[in-house]
Amino acid sequence: MPATQRILAIFGTRPEAIKLFPLVHALADSRFVSRVCVSGQHRGMLDQVLAIAGIAPDHDLDLMQPDQALDALTANLLTGIGKVLDEERPDWVVVQGDTATAMCGALAAYYRKIPVAHVEAGLRSGNIHHPWPEEVNRKVIGGFAALHFAPTETAAAALRAENVDPATIHVTGNTVIDALHWVTEKIEREPSLAHGLAELESRFAGKRIIGVTSHRRENFGEGMQAIADAIRRLAARDDVAVIFPVHLNPNVRKVMEAELAGLANVALIEPLDYPHFARLIAISSLMLTDSGGVQEEAPALGKPVLVMRETTERPEGVEAGTAKLVGTDADRIVAEAARLLDDEAAYAAMARAHNPFGDGKAAARIVELLASSN
Ligand code: UD1
Ligand code: UDP
């Protein structure tokens, strides 16, 4: 009988929480002692996910500061997580993706010779400035992780090209699809969990809804301004309404509030919890986003997604024809969105439920791989 494995999952932001809750659920298994440390890199947006997923962290470093700078955040994460590792002494640390919390959690583990399992390993844009600083964060973790859970074959190939030992790379699918299935089933059982958009749905009845999210650091300044400009121009159409849950980052909020507040066809709203965000995708004709996770979820739900970035580390949606890179030029964003709204054939070509990112069973695969890596 193999010894029980002590696993510590470390995460801190909304997308990490969404993509790790299926694994935390799956680790509730007698083969593991499963513990959770949240950094609190995000606060409200993290807590929304913890609440819906029913996760009560064993450690909460609560270290978010308003408009936090990357260097202070990194320093606080490294020392804070280090102390938790000294107390917990896990056999494995699990991190997800490419945030500051993921990188520092992995690094603090490496400093203690604790093996790291990296969920969503191998995504690469090939450009260290897009996404910034995430491209480098993810590469740092990839440099020493003991297990690399690549969501797709493309991601696995990127790791092999960096001379990562192929025996440590496993294609598992992306746990975001597990999360999406879980939340969809939860809403089916309890529809009231996603009823909060009803008022907007009736206010905008008869219009085509564009769901928007935006938060990327490399888009701050000019990029955010251009995105706001594009949304204002699109919302000037009678047949369109924009629902935009605005990220809590003040660099996003101040631009969007200054440019878009009070427009008749624009609803700037607070970040939605996961069931309501899934509902927003479902009622939208198309998604306009610079988010990583939304690029994966929208194609899975058959919604075209226009990606307001110069590059993507998730080429699978673009290759499948359900996502399109449109950059942050306002004219281009408006033209691409208008094409989808006005050209039925162009819309139909993109609005195919397609899911290159996983089958909803990634967490189960990861659990078995961890169990056999004793
Ligand atoms: C972080 C991640 C990014 C990820 C994004 C997901 C890094 C460097 N960045 O970016 O990879 O795509 O999260 O959303 O790890 N804030 C709140 N409440 C919250 C969350 C944020 O008030 O619940 C505000 C705070 O003022 C905070 C600021 O947003 O200082 C920025 O948060 P931070 O986590 O540093 O960066 P994000 O841009 O959210
Ligand atoms: N999301 C959410 N509520 C919102 C906006 C997004 O629950 O108001 C979810 C979305 O479904 C996706 C994740 O948050 O799973 C994406 O997070 P974000 O865009 O902040 O980060 P990224 O994926 O770009 O790292």
Describe this structure in a few short sentences.
The protein is 46% helix and 16% strand. With 374 residues, the protein is of the alpha/beta class.
N-to-C CA distance: 11 Å
Q: If strands are numbered along the chain, what order do they take across the biggest sheet? A: 3-2-1-4-5-6-7
- As a whole number of angstroms, the C-alpha radius of gyration is 20 Å
* Beta strand count: 13
Notable traits:
16 helices, seven-stranded parallel β-sheet, six-stranded parallel β-sheet, binds uridine-5'-diphosphate, 374 residues, alpha/beta
Describe the structure.
By secondary structure, the protein is an alpha/beta fold. 46% of the residues lie in helices and 16% in strands. The protein has 16 helices and 13 strands. The protein has helices at residues 14-26, 44-53, 70-88, 100-111, 134-142, 153-161, 175-189, 198-203, 222-234, 250-260, 274-283, 292-300, 315-320, 330-342, 344-350, 362-371; strands spanning 5-11, 32-38, 59-60, 92-96, 116-119, 147-150, 169-171, 208-213, 240-245, 266-269, 286-289, 305-307, 323-325. A seven-stranded parallel β-sheet has the order 3-2-1-4-5-6-7, with helices on both faces. Helix 9 links the parallel strand 8 and strand 9 (240-245). Helix 1 (14-26) packs across helix 16 and helix 9 packs parallel to helix 10 (250-260). It is globular. The mean pLDDT is 96. It binds uridine-diphosphate-N-acetylglucosamine and uridine-5'-diphosphate (UDP).
